[in-house]
């Protein structure tokens, strides 16, 4: 029993006429009749009731026709889905996102990918520090990452999206709240909420270097891995923080953001395994190839 036999059977079932079905299939009438006879022999029961004037499906033929339509539809769907996956237009892409980009940049990236590739499914892990994302890329748990450079892991390729300065996050009512003249040096006696010092956080390294350039080492009152938690502690009045500008997309009551002069900038980049030849990854990178998030980011900030 071949697929072409099933399609020919359905043509006869639809037209209820061997001649018209044969014309539509562009095959000879006798050949079509033999095919249907062979199919009936394979099934083990007549599928058509034949008279000199017409051909009608038997009860078994009607049931068989319904099942054949379902099977062929599922097969056609499977072929279509496989073709889309092979072309990189469908499938699942696992994405990791650093904390400060989870709120401002990620929604724009997702919208642009979905606009270009609507059949692609994105599974997303947010609030991941860069070292954790790099490790997850290396061992195959992630396919794409929005992380901070530099990436101190071999085999990871990346494309910088933009660089942004560190800004000051203050609790509402803080003595520097609303002060347009505040500088990094003014913060030397403050308690800081920071990312953990021992995790290799790119942002934490930039904070330490920014404070060192102003002549002091930040006093770490609290250390947390998630940007949302960091800002929640600032809102609670447990300290101040230096964060990338995209973190200001998190509109948390009780937190005010202030631009500072002479802070270090940090880069946000797309990163992936250099050896990954997935058509899906290639299509997503292509969809984001012309992406300039700077304007959107500035609007959100």
TrEMBL record:
SUPFAM superfamilies per UniProt: Periplasmic binding protein-like II (SSF53850), Winged helix' DNA-binding domain (SSF46785)
InterPro entries: LysR_HTH_N, LysR_subst-bd, WH-like_DNA-bd_sf, WH_DNA-bd_sf
Gene Ontology annotations for the cellular component aspect, listed alphabetically: protein-DNA complex
Gene Ontology molecular-function annotations: DNA binding; DNA-binding transcription factor activity
Span of domain HTH lysR-type: 1-58
UniProt KW keywords: Activator, DNA-binding, Transcription, Transcription regulation
PROSITE patterns: HTH_LYSR
Similarity comment: family membership: Belongs to the LysR transcriptional regulatory family.
Full protein name: HTH lysR-type domain-containing protein
Source organism of the structure: Tsukamurella pseudospumae
